[in-house]
Amino acid sequence: MENFKMDEELEALSAVQESKQEELMDLPNVVGVGLGHKVKNGKESSEKTLLVFLEQKVEKESLKKSEIVPATIDKVKTDVVEIGPVYAQTDPVLNNRLRPFPAGFSIAHYRVTAGTAAALTVDRSATAPAKYYVLSNCHVLANSGAASINDAVYQPGPFDGGTSADKVGRLSRFVPIVFSATANNQVDCAIAEIDFLEYFGGEIHGIGYPKGMGTVGVGGQLQKSGRTTGYTRGKVIAVNATINVGFGSFGVARFVNQIVTSGMSAGGDSGSLVLDMNGKAVGLLFAGSTSATIINPISAVMNALNIDFA
Amino acid sequence: MAILGSSLACQVNHKNNTDMKKIEAAVTAASTEFMKIKGVQGVGQGKNKKDEDCIVVFTSADSASLAKRIPDAYQGFGVVVQNIGEVEAQ
Fold first, then answer.
1. CA A222 to centroid of chain Cα atoms
2. Are B88 and A267 inside 8 Å of each other by CB?
3. CA distance A98 to A106
4. Which residues of chain B have pLDDT under 50?
């Protein structure tokens, strides 16, 4: 306990905690025990207490008397705090194979390294039975335009070990990128039809389903879940941006009407759906530097591919 | 590639349309002019510290000689230079 600043009062609480901890942890729903301040009427008070963390608060009536956390233990007051289930926060495993795989996970054309699956989409004029597509970048699903329609798409992408056994769909359409510093590219996007709907859940890992489309303003905070850096947030630095983007051996392509945020991505995050903090989609991540991320506005992406979120 | 009707600019809230058109026109002109300078990778519409519309010039290197070639103001709007390093598809 030497890492914590303790006064006499807390030392006494700590002694009680040590002697009763095992008993408390055996109670249903209890996921942890600690020392802290009692919360009164939603506000933290200065009163020191033994905190008992519950996965979920339940009605006392549904518990046996022996299963209820006592209000006091050895003259020490307790406070119960609902914190939900607790998981080890290991690095996300977004480069793994998963079925169904969520958006945010690794995906790529069979000749590309790896990018990120953005969202589950359908044709705008879709009639049942609809075709379902995974959205990502042209440089992820269509090898920057060097691919052929119906080429295989793997989850995870080849760099993450994906092989023909991991095929989840085939390239349906893409918007070609014009590799020129005078071009007016607006989007780097493509869709692949999913072979079986059971392959792709469409829920974004750590975020949930997109709640339609939102707008973006300078200074606004955005979020994404991607193959390499997992869940991150960034702040909008500029809109309406014209920017030259390097595509390796394909050359440089100029993009217009782009969103620039503080750095929220790294190689392999391309294709991540970018959302505002209300869960509304605002863009498709496709490029970046060490300190900035470049995003296509989502309305341009959806219009160019003539798709809607499923 | 198809030119798309709905540009991001239409989604940004502005005090009025005149202001919006002025900054948009300035950003467009600035992108043509400043992107000719070696080391300038991009130009966009941002906000300065006073929360006023400004032109943001993105550079690939933190260079004093490069910064000297970019004016402090352009067509009535402040210009902010931000070095972001090389931009690559990710």
1. 11
2. yes
3. 10
4. 1-14
